[in-house]
Amino acid sequence: MTKMTLSQELQWRGFANQTTLSDITKLDEKKLRFYHGYDASADSLTIGNMAAVMMDKVFIRHGYHPVLLAGGATSLIGDPGGKDKERPLQDEATVRANVAAVKKQLEQLVGKEVTMVNNLDWFKNMNVIEFMRDVGKHFSMTPLVQRDYIAKRLGAGGAGITYTEFSYTLLQGYDFLRLYEDHQVTLQLAGSDQWGNALSGVDLVRRVKGVETHAYTCPLIINKATGKKFGKSEEGAVWLDPAKTSPTQFYQFWMNTDDEGAEGYLKVFTELTKEDVDKIMHHHKEAPQIRTAQTRLAQEVTQLVHGEAEMKQAEKVTELLVGKVPLTEAGAATLAVMRKEQPSCLTTATASIVDTLVETGLASSNTEARRLLSGNAVTINNQKVSRENFEAADFVNGHLLLRKGKKFKDTALVELNA
Questions:
Q1: Whole-number pLDDT of residue 87
Q2: Within 10 A of 116 (CB to CB), how many other CB atoms are there?
Q3: Which of 122, 118, 165, 173 lies closest to 145, judged by CA?
Q4: Which of 2, 244, 353, 360 could form a disulfide with 239 if both were Cys (CB 3.0 to 4.6 A apart)?
Q5: How far is 350 from 371, CA to CA, in rounded Å?
Q6: In DSSP terms, which residues pair with 19 in a beta bridge?
Q7: Looking at the domain covering 6-218, what would its CATH class be?
Q8: What is the pLDDT of residues 324-377, one digit of tens each?
């Protein structure tokens, strides 16, 4: 296996974007302490956040020490970056609960040996005069109003920006100064949308301490097939919290990723080596219909986030849905998951398929159900049907899978009424 330097691995995985370093290879010279801040405006990270965590893990594998910051204070303000209008403000109790939830997810992904901090610890007792004298005086308005997200909001057609949002970059800048003082942090990692805020920190540390620190960002992960931000499904964001996105839904999201982006997602969202990824993509390109890349991607990411047992169960449900394994292999635990994940109903051996499509929500009316049947858009156990009633032979151990179209979510578990 070829051993990569940190800079080589960052570039290979697609984590190279903007940096204040004159040359990215300078990251290979000395193991630094870095910090990466995570928003606490929600009680779970998304897979968009996870991409940033995976970048952190690359630095950690190469000997860097992480300080992960929960934005307990800054989340009370709301980051204006990438937003066309101000976010609704959340109360302190909500943000505190969000911080606890995000901290737990970060520790699961990165490990408990990392240093965890909360910027509410140093902002909660700071008064306005202190903030203006010790922080605000070091910032010039000219470069701040030229920041992309601020200029957009202030420009023609913009929604404007409140002083609350405008002050966000000063708060994040102070985070860097405080972490330099308390933890000897000299590098900030961030997503590309935080570049301006990261520069605020670099500039503040230089002005106050006369020390050169640096910022490094990873690019936004884009779905190459759609050109949109990666991690949004038809139902919304893909969350790491199993109560928001179940392990099966999570697994199936990765199974449904496009061929065009599969290799990039393997590099970003897994810790597989270059040799592993090259081998997977070789097999995938030989027979793309088998979806080798998507299967390995779903296995790796689901296991990392939800553990091996949940991954195996999600894999089993998915294999049943696509007909890779027969319904005879569906045990009680798997069927229980399917009842929770998929539409389901009880019926009789010769019941109406039309009625069942409507009852399970796969069709909105009898008319639509008949149209789906006549258009060969309905399958029973992955076999197309056009008839309007079930037959006893359709049921396997008292169960069948009824699907509209090709999507996992449009499959219902239909069971014989005992």
A1: 56
A2: 16
A3: 165
A4: 244
A5: 20
A6: 216
A7: alpha beta
A8: 888 989 999 999 999 998 999 999 999 999 999 999 999 999 999 999 999 999
**Local structure of 101: helix, strand or coil:** helix
Where along the chain do its domains lie? 6-218, 232-333, 342-416
User: From CA 250, how far away is CA 239, in angstroms rounded?
Assistant: 8
Write down the CATH superfamily of domain 232-333.
Tyrosyl-Transfer RNA Synthetase (1.10.240.10)
**What number is the average pLDDT over the span 223-248?**
82
Q: How far apart are CA 393 and CA 175, in angstroms?
A: 66
Q: Which residues of 299-325 are buried (b: 16+ CB within 10 A; e: fewer)?
A: bbbbbbbbeeebbebbbbbbbbbbeee
- Looking at residue 228, its pLDDT comes to 79
Neighbours of 398 (CB within 10 A): 14
Give domain 342-416's CATH architecture: Roll (3.10)
> Could you give the angle at the alpha carbon of 77 between the alpha carbons of 74 and 81, nearest 5°?
80
- For 218, the enclosing helix (H) or strand (E) is strand 214-218
Q: What is the mean pLDDT of residues 215-229?
A: 86
Residue with tokens 């996870």: 50
The string of pLDDT tens digits covering residues 285-303 is 999 999 999 999 999 999 9
Query: Is the full-model pTM beyond 0.90?
Result: no
Q: CA-CA distance, 43 to 104, in Å (whole number)?
A: 10
Which residue in the block uniquely carries the two structure tokens 């179209």? 405
Q: Which residues contact 238 (CB under 8 A, 6 or more apart)?
A: 46, 47, 231, 232, 245, 249, 250, 253
> What tokens does 96 get?
């505190």
Alpha-carbon 217 to chain mean position: 17
Give one word for 307, left, alpha or beta, with left for phi > 0 and alpha for psi -120 to 50.
Answer: left
What angle is formed at CA 86 by the lines to CA 80 and CA 87, rounded to 5 degrees? 90
